[in-house]
Write a structure and sequence with these properties.
Two copies of one chain form a homodimer. With 367 residues, the first copy, chain A, is α/β, with parallel strands linked by helices. The first copy, chain A, folds into three domains: 47 residues, 434 Repressor (Amino-terminal Domain); 124 residues, Response regulator (Rossmann fold), CATH 3.40.50.2300; 138 residues, Rossmann fold (3-Layer(aba) Sandwich), CATH 3.40.50. Helices cover 41% and strands 16% of the residues of chain A. In chain A, strand 9, helix 11 and strand 10 form a beta-alpha-beta unit. In chain A, helix 1 packs across helix 2. Chain A is elongated, with a radius of gyration of 26 Å. The N terminus of chain A is likely disordered. At the A-B interface, helix 4, strand 2, helix 5, strand 3 and helix 6 of A face helix 4, strand 2, helix 5, strand 3 and helix 6 of B. Strand 2 of chain A pairs parallel with strand 13 of chain B, so a sheet runs across the interface. Chain A binds a DNA duplex (30 and 30 nucleotides) through helix 2 and helix 4. Chains A, B: GO terms for molecular function: DNA binding.
Chain lengths: 367, 367
DNA sequence: CCGGTGGATGTATGCGCATACATTCACGGC
DNA sequence: GCCGTGAATGTATGCGCATACATCCACCGG
């Protein structure tokens, strides 16, 4: 006994039932002050009786704007696409869970940025349509999305720049979290470099460290490059030698961080400080060091970057640089709306401030 | 030098440029096999040259389906709506961060469910449009959303049931995470009761506990009710007295969990086990107990529910019941598509399995 | 008592696309 | 050499709404 109607009622149905023209129906819904009380009343009754809901497509077509903003992410979770939907009736299983969970931070990132976009869109009466560009259909899907929204917020790495630029010819595009290149697009990002620089200068000045090493993430990722650059600037500003490359390179995962730390311990050459390119890596590093009997921050200082929840719950709590993920989404929408309002305005490159969180893993606070 | 065109090119522009009719343009894009190679070629060239992207609104209108699925959440973050967009140029600030972070799990929940919905939608060539129903515009926005999608996934608590039922007259609605009531809607939820029951039976049977107390969350929330019911069933099945109400009642936050634990410690009557209705609360409880010198699980066993990341990172790691949040979204979409395919099919009430994670806080594993 | 005025409502049209139907044309069979 | 056939393409229409413009009518001033 599902109650879904075979076909949705339209303005015409409402108009018939209310004994008015479709124009009056439309007016009651969009500009009520121009319609007499009587007609308004009858129309609203008809709307209620029929369960009428205006078609977004028709409205969008007539208004020449969809009322939605698109958010596109790179395929963080390509793998997850495999699992079939479980239809098991088993209500509860049980298992010993000794494993160290390694929740992908990317999920969190996606969720937070989406939240920011949705919030800012809401404030302007818009909706947010999200898509994770995966596999083959990747670029085609982005164009499809572009066709159904008023503007796009695209995370760096979602699609090749040339596709973005092409799409941008018809739909404004704001790129999140990558530095302005030569593309004619608006950008929003965080102060990766300055954040890392401030953190490292703190280690040098406040804790008097000198033997400071960088543990990178995936090579050539803009964020990683900027962080390493900030690291170098800090050293240079204090007259210390600047390495050409990170001491170690991971892939932003906790597991990889563990492996790297294991290598250091085995080789017996752990520096005074391990400055990691992200929190996940740092958490893995800390875990392995502690198991190997190396005290953090007693024997070695470890820091992260991102400011994820887990970094504030570890022992020791991780000193890190917090970047405002949801804020990225909000500001991206702000930039998008400005672009919509004035297509000829100069390109924007907004850099959001970060905050260095001094906690236990650098020795600033006691556990 | 922004490159956004003043108005998007249409099929007509493409047809003109390619020297064909709009029908041929449309065919090249939708059914390429019906068009000659020559025409196809010219059309694609024109599309590229003009940066043409089909209008989603027009397509939706003509096709009588939008190609999008709506996801609506209750207003977890009403408060956050206040902050203005920061336009600060300060790239990095610094602060000592002694506070215990209390990341709202609701954000995570929203992100995960959205992820599931988006993934399943993607597999069917659909997009996901999300909206958090806040404040005054709440119900109106839900209808607006309904008008622009082919189906809705609505989380319990987003809007009053009567609004849902009304909307469902024109757009299929699947309700997530609340038990089937009298509404003529499809439902998808997790096995809250059985999960909690299994966990508590484990505490009774395996750890031989008897003085087991329940720490609830917000009253009258379906999930909380079901969990408390499962708690009671476990006790009853072992011939123990079943309390009529939770020993304590929090609000699902970590902070509130702390306050409750403080009360117990001060009163000097801490039970053998504190079974919490969610992880956040349990984390707060554990923190305060430990600071008060009460050992967990040595002196008192504490358990949670939800299986959030933080529960696997605390010391001791929390024994809890993991519920598949992303899976909720995926299955909801699955149910939605079935409903779309057959409006007359019997109503569904899918219950997803949960998994009890036995870790350190119940004593199953050593820290 | 008539033209003017403004509020309420109706009529007609366009938004951009998909597609049913019509048309054209090349080709093969008779 | 004519007609049937089918592939390729064009023409016309509808999808559901917003809105410019036309119409109607009650009411006012002169």
């Amino acid at each position: 006994m599902a109650t879904t109607r075979s076909s949705r009622p339209t303005v015409y149905d409402v108009a018939d039932r209310a004994g008015v023209s479709i124009a009056t129906v439309s007016r009651v819904l969009r500009r009520p002050e121009t319609v007499s009380p009587g007609a308004t009343r009858r129309v609203l009754d008809a709307v209620r009786d029929l369960g009428y809901v205006p078609s977004g497509s028709a409205r969008g077509l007539a208004a020449r704007r969809s009322g939605a903003i698109g958010v596109a992410f790179p395929a963080f979770d390509d793998v997850a696409e495999i699992d079939p939907v479980p239809l098991s009736d088993v209500p509860a299983t049980m298992r010993l869970d000794p494993a160290e969970a390694a929740e992908p931070v990317t999920n969190l990132y996606m969720g937070e940025v989406t939240r920011g976009v949705e919030l800012e869109a809401w404030r302007h009466g818009l909706f947010a349509t999200v898509a994770v560009a995966r596999g083959e259909r990747r670029d085609a899907a982005l164009e499809d999305l572009a066709g159904r929204v008023d503007g796009l917020v695209v995370l760096a790495g979602t699609t090749p720049p040339e596709v973005l630029v092409r799409v941008a010819r018809s739909t404004p595009v704001v790129v999140v979290a990558s530095p302005r290149g030569e593309d004619p697009l608006d950008h929003v990002r965080t102060a990766n470099g300055p954040g890392m620089r401030a953190l490292v200068e703190h280690l040098l000045d406040h804790h008097g460290l000198r033997d400071v090493a960088f543990v990178g993430g995936v090579a050539d990722v803009p964020d990683d490059l900027e962080r390493f650059a900030g690291f170098g600037e800090a050293l240079a500003s204090r007259g210390l030698p600047v390495p050409a490359a990170p001491l170690l390179r991971g892939d932003f995962t906790e597991e990889r961080g563990r492996a790297l730390a294991r290598g250091l311990v085995d080789a017996g050459r752990v520096p005074e400080a391990l400055v990691c390119s992200n929190d996940q890596t740092a958490l893995g590093v800390v875990d392995v060091l502690q198991r190997a009997g190396v005290r953090v921050p007693g024997d070695v200082v470890v820091t992260g970057f991102d400011g994820i929840d887990a970094a504030g719950r570890s022992r020791p709590r991780l000193t890190t640089v917090h970047q405002p993920m949801a804020e990225l989404g909000r500001v991206a929408v702000d930039v998008l709306l400005r672009r919509l309002a004035d297509p000829a305005a100069p390109l924007e490159d907004r850099v959001l401030p970060v905050q260095v969180l001094l906690r236990e893993s650098c020795g600033c606070l006691r556990a």
